[in-house]
Amino acid sequence: MSHLPPLRRIRTFVLTLLAVSYLFVLLYFLFGGQWQMPGALIVAVAYMFLPLLVSLVFVRFVHREPLRPALRMSFRFNRWWLVAWVFPPVYALLTFFINLVMPGVSFAPGMEGMLERYGSSLTGEQLVAMQEQLASSPWMPVILGLLGGMVAGITVNAIAAFGEEAGWRGYLLRHLLPLGFWRASLIIGTVWGLWHAPLILLGHNYPEHPFLGVFMMTLWTILLTPVLNYITLRAKSVFAAAIFHGTLNGTLGLSILYLRGGSDLTAGATGVAGMLALGVMNLLLWHGMKKHHLPVV
């Protein structure tokens, strides 16, 4: 067993993870990589597994602890797994309605906003075909998006998300929880956001504002972390966190599907609208934990 003091353990883990992650992206470019498909997608997916890799090294070779309890890897199902699965679409829906009151944002049942954003990647024939399909079945995209996101959330997306969650809700939450639920959530959310920095600077999530996007992403992960932490602790498994995270990634697009206007800083789940939705959820969580003495373990 390692004799590192807890705070030193945490600091060493965080610095190692950030160094490995940032170096990974740097090496990709040094060896001639370009931030375009399909290379960018491969790098982004591989990047998600780095928290798992570093956690495995620390648990097995630094602390020499059993892997499954150290990373909260339990397959024992309970109702909180279901909460983890259905919560992200609820969040996307709430964000959608908040978006409607944001300046410069309007309801676009014909998906004009989405076509403006991504229409340049379609041929003229594809664009016409999509517009015809929307005219005949205007709600089909949201149905397909919801079903596809929910299925991906418990399959391929959950696998990739587990790569991250092993670090955040596995290793870090276990070591930081003695500091208190909210303090632990603040630290984890900050580390999680800063970990995204290289990808954000390359245009992920905030392509119009990459530098300011690092701050926005960090604020978003700070706000998201308490909800994710609470569900993980009640589920007693990091796999519930992976399902939550995977479904979140699969359904976030629903929050802007029928919207037009706004920017990457204001509209959408990772913009101001999404942060307001998370703010409401955090207030409800804090009030519920305080009033009803809700347990987190």
The average pLDDT is: 88
Strand content: under 5%
> Helices and strands: which structural class?
mainly alpha
**Strand order, sheet with most strands:** 1-2
**Tally of individual helices:** 14
Report on the biggest sheet: 2 strands, antiparallel
Order of helices and strands: HHHHHEHHHHHHHHEH
Number of domains in the coordinates? 1
Can you give a write-up of this model?
- This protein is mainly alpha-helical.
- It has one domain.
- About 70% of the residues lie in helices and about 0% in strands.
- It is built from 14 helices and 2 strands; from the N terminus they run αααααβααααααααβα.
- It has a two-stranded antiparallel ribbon with strand order 1-2.
- Helix 5 packs across helix 14 and helix 9 crosses helix 10.
- The protein is globular.
- The protein starts with 5 loop residues before the first helix and ends in a 5-residue tail after the last helix.
- About 40% of the residues are buried.
- The mean pLDDT is about 90.
Topology:
Elements: H1 6-30, H2 39-48, H3 50-62, H4 67-70, H5 79-99, E1 105-107, H6 112-118, H7 124-136, H8 140-153, H9 156-176, H10 181-195, H11 197-201, H12 210-235, H13 238-251, E2 259-261, H14 272-292
Antiparallel strand pairs: 1-2
